[in-house]
Recover the amino acids of this structure.
């Protein structure tokens, strides 16, 4: 059984789309360098040449506008940033140009740009190398936001994003890059549902996306041992957001945990989900819903602090215990290496 | 172009821009053009002569003061008027207003309202031309304040680095809103020299003689189409009316009456008219006829608005995403 | 009875604070020009000199960083933008510098900067001159966000913001500038509660801020005629957000309308409020709460479109009618001049 | 300064920076410094000689590669080590890590992790000096990629406009991560000339002789303190190790082994040592003693970490806002 990682899946999607559409262009810091953007751009420059795959100056705002210009003129683009934080320099081009162009010029032209943003975690990424601003992007009409959790979805959604005539923000959590899946699962499905019930249970509904979905899966077994099962809903697409899957699940489970573990709480995606559900007539929960996010504090650098800054498995389990009203036996998880995705990982990036 | 025709065209487009803008100014107080509107009366020569020197397949893109660039690239005054009045027949369906004009048929890719915002977009358009191996260029119009935004430098750096066929045309009218350039940029520093230090081939043109100005642009554009590179042109110019809106604003006191007078005295359209007569290219009566024709044409385009129906929000609310 | 407008109240606060603290600095495009930043900076340069009150180049990102630098070095600042939209260029300095400086350098220094942002509406402000991104700012730990509705609050909160050792985003809706209040109400109160119940009733609770509070007040009479009364809660401070006042009110009214009429819906302040309330054990509503925001569409320019883009009084009344289960006789409001704040207003700015 | 002392100090600070950085490099693989760490081994001369020429009341501010600037301004190696290890005793309480150093006592106002992010902050600090009528300056350290960010231009424009006492020191090590400057900036364009076209007084210095370099900085800083203006200095330099982390990276292939060799051959610290001996300022044995003293000192500072207790998140979670 061959396996493929998340970053390989991205590499595969990029390679195939670059072959499929000779007009497609890729650029960003690190695209052509020795580390190939966490391996995701491996081989691209060799196959497609340095005009279509290029390094850029450190000029995030202009490069975004340049991407918009190219996409307006028949060259769809994939732009990439090794940290989402750097992209803060480009909010004018993103919000005032990319998001609005199609609309504000009366639908005369559109901006097929895909913007890959990598979110850092652990090993001292610190306050300015670990931010995840999906709720910012989702707040802006004209943008789409996807945050796949699995290699197959990364593959599929990156291809869909590239073919989308609109700007799409594609957010990858750094800790997903090494996650593996069976190669045969990597297939392009044009009609894939976005939000998906990926695991079924009965005691409560968990809603998550990106790394938080992996975190929910990682406690499935402990819960099973404790005779607790849950519906796990993986959002995949943050905007548009399809809450119908959640609503259906809640009709059965009547208990809700939203794990929005890579976001600050205020005006988060989690808040938006709760707000939408609260306004629904037909949802009756047995207990108030739970929303777990990062604290409303910037990420500290020191590993001594991050241990308590990031959400621990045991915290989630404790909350679930309260939500379903059952005791859960906790294991000593999370006490070592809480700041790296796996034991192979050698810092800093 | 045959010589006579050439002179005529340059005169005509300048005059048309002025007449259109004066029409807007005179009608603005009726409160039917309900959007912030930046007129370029006094600055038409730059748009006219560069616009005429552009080929249809050349691209242009502009900033908030863009009526002239839109028209000079071939944009329809009908669609401009309709846009300002908020009708669906406007070039941007009334959604964009005065600061968001577009005319893809003539490769006028758009004008935007945030200072310097359209600059990198122009550079990106040029990258596409390069990829498609097209022998055309992108003309990026900017004001003098545009070079205060960092994105200008980021964009021109990339454009030079990749040898893109880009011509920056900086209309230096000395003011950003009510603030003189000396309060925003170091004294004695010339914008075009700065562009040159970035690595662009840089030029300082004057607008006094629009016919000469056309020739200079024409030569330059030919050069760029042949040998793609990034060029920068600064032209000193002057707006006669207020920054935004239809009125004379000299009473506000931020600029000297004598400066306004000085510039009006060397008005490029007046100059052109006199030049054509003095050099016996056209007779006074011919020019007067031409003027009248232009005025009639513009009036007709304006009056066509009367026929338009009020558009409905529900018709555009699906336009946020392309489907 | 003398009266004072919102913009005069701001002018008064600025003048007094500049006198009180000789180190305070004010800057922004239009600060010293003929129109004095909507009248709010009138007389400042004359009184305090052009070193402390100055025009800037059009360089939003650098000017924000420059303000941060000054504030770090004993010169608190008030920076101003005539449209919030321009400030999108400065998100790096806002989020990566101003918001985090105190924390990320271990509390060694802090950034007493106040950033005034004006939100445009109507008369063709269009897609890039009318955005209001309070939910972005509120999402970022390290920032405070205030949005006063009345001259007295504008005065008070601006003074408080200036004296705050932390960065504060002070958002003014352009349509509030001419709102009047009795001059004698303009008093500095150090201990003012932020979120405030400003009008008491019994049929439902309305939560609003900035222009939406004025909008709620404007329908009070119609509702009264229809024998409907409501608690009106004016947030004033968006972050920190104090929901206790809302909770108390809901205990009585059990019905909730959040009017967040100057925001797009997704991840809005309104969503955050609903999300926080939904998670409370002790709140039992009779009907699902209502949240009214702008549509998830950029602002169109044409006056023909804005009429239906912005929320109309009758829409609010219709919703209230459903919320409280009573018929309301509608008047023909909002049919004329929906895109200017009052009949004296002559466009465009 | 007495001559001997002067030479000693310049040598000492360079050497100290190197020893500290080598200590970090040698200990990094223990995985206890869990943060992205950019070493400046090879580049110490610039930090050392400029840092020494700064007065205590002069301010400096820096970028991601800032250990050297922090130390040269008087920062404590103890606090640096503690910061990298994430202890509360670190200069930023362990919250900031390697890329966020601060030492207000010595007017090192901070270093930040986003390229060019600290530039406008430095300019703002200088505006404050001006307002307070202080006769000091702000030194803004930047890398060669910093001039690709628009905010650099916006900031230097304002600094020049307001005649602020600012010295930009650009450490041009030719690379941004693995990308050579020729792939990011137009060929043949010199950074210091660009700064000059902006309106700064601009200089190109070399690091080969750190004693000379010190003199140049010293003269320049005196000038700026007397006559506040914006200056820009470019120094070509070279980092020996990888962009981020403790390893040699020549095998990655993005730069030529012979380039690395060339620069190591003219290592400023080796040069300094030889210079001191050749010119009989110090004896070999004296220098060896000095080196030993430095190494011992640095070892002691490093070993002090053993005494520190693990800090707790709850102690810092209240630091988001100042009360
Ligand atoms: C980023 C940004 N900041 C501020 C403004 C407000 N503004 C509108 S037009 C203008 C003046 C620009 O001056 P210039 O580029 O010289 O063009 P001109 O109006 O003189 O033609 C300014 C500052 C804006 N639109 N965008
Ligand atoms: C805005 C931004 N973009 C990208 C990065 C990633 N990055 C970190 S260091 C670096 C290289 C900067 O090169 P230079 O300024 O020459 O400094 P050097 O590392 O060579 O000392 C880059 C691109 C960043 N930190 N910030
Ligand atoms: Mg101008
Ligand atoms: Mg470098």
């Amino acid at each position: 059984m061959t396996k493929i990682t998340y970053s390989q899946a991205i590499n595969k999607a990029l390679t195939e789309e670059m072959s499929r559409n000779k007009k497609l262009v890729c650029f960003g810091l690190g695209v052509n360098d020795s580390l190939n953007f966490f391996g995701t751009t491996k081989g691209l420059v060799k196959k497609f040449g340095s005009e279509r795959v290029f390094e850029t100056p450190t000029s995030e705002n202009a490069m975004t506008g340049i991407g918009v210009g190219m996409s307006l003129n028949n060259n769809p683009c994939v732009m990439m940033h090794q940290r989402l934080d750097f992209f803060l320099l480009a909010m004018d081009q993103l919000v005032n140009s990319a998001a609005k162009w199609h609309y504000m010029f009366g639908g005369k032209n559109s901006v097929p740009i895909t913007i890959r943003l990598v979110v850092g975690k652990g090993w001292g990424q610190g306050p300015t190398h670990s931010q995840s601003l999906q709720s910012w992007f989702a707040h802006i009409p004209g943008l789409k936001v996807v945050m796949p959790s699995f290699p197959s979805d990364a593959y599929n959604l990156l291809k869909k994003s590239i073919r989308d005539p609109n700007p799409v923000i594609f957010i990858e959590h750094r800790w997903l890059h090494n996650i593996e899946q069976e190669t045969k699962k990597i297939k392009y499905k044009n009609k894939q549902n976005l939000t998906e019930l990926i695991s079924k249970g009965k005691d409560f509904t968990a809603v998550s996306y990106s790394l938080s979905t992996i975190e929910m899966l990682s406690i499935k077994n402990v819960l099973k041992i404790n005779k607790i099962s849950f519906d796990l809903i993986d959002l995949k697409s943050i905007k548009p957001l399809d809450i119908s899957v959640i609503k259906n699940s809640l009709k059965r489970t009547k208990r809700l945990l939203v794990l929005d573990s890579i976001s600050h709480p205020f005006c988060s995606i989690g808040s938006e989900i709760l707000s939408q559900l609260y306004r629904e007539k037909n949802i009756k929960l047995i207990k108030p819903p739970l929303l777990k996010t990062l604290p409303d504090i910037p990420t500290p650098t020191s590993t001594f602090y991050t241990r308590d800054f990031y959400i621990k498995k045991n915290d989630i389990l404790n909350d679930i215990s309260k939500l379903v009203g059952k005791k859960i036996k906790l294991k000593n998880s999370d006490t070592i290496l809480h700041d790296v995705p796996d034991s192979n990982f050698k810092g800093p990036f | 172009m045959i010589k006579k025709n050439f002179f005529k065209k340059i005169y005509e487009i300048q005059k048309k821009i002025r007449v259109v803008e004066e029409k807007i100014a005179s009608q603005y107080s009726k409160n039917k053009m309900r959007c912030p509107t930046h007129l370029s009366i006094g600055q038409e020569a730059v748009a006219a002569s560069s616009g005429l020197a552009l080929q249809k397949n050349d691209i242009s893109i502009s900033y908030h003061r863009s009526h002239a660039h839109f028209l000079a690239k071939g944009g329809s005054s009908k669609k401009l008027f309709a846009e300002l009045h908020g009708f669906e027949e406007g070039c941007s369906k009334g959604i964009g207003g005065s600061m968001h004009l577009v005319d893809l048929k003539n490769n006028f890719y758009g004008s935007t309202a945030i200072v310097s915002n359209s600059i990198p977009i122009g550079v990106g358009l040029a990258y596409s031309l390069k990829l498609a191996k097209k022998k055309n260029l992108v003309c990026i119009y900017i004001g003098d304040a545009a070079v205060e935004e960092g994105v200008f430098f980021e964009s021109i750096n990339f454009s030079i680095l990749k040898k893109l066929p880009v011509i920056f045309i900086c209309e230096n009218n000395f003011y950003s809103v009510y603030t003189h350039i000396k309060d925003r940029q170091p004294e004695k520093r010339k914008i075009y020299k700065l562009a040159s230090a970035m690595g662009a081939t840089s030029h300082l043109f004057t607008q006094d003689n629009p016919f000469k100005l056309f020739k200079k642009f024409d030569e330059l554009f030919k050069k760029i189409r042949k040998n793609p590179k990034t060029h920068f042109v600064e032209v000193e110019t002057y707006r006669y009316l207020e920054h935004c809106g239809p009125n004379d604003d000299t009473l506000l006191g931020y600029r000297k009456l004598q400066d306004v007078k000085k510039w009006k005295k060397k008005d490029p359209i007046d100059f052109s008219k006199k030049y054509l007569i003095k050099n016996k290219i056209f007779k006074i009566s011919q020019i007067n006829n031409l003027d009248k024709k232009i005025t009639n044409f513009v009036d007709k385009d304006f009056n066509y608005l009367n026929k338009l129906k009020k558009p409905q929000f529900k018709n555009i609310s699906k336009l946020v995403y392309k489907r």
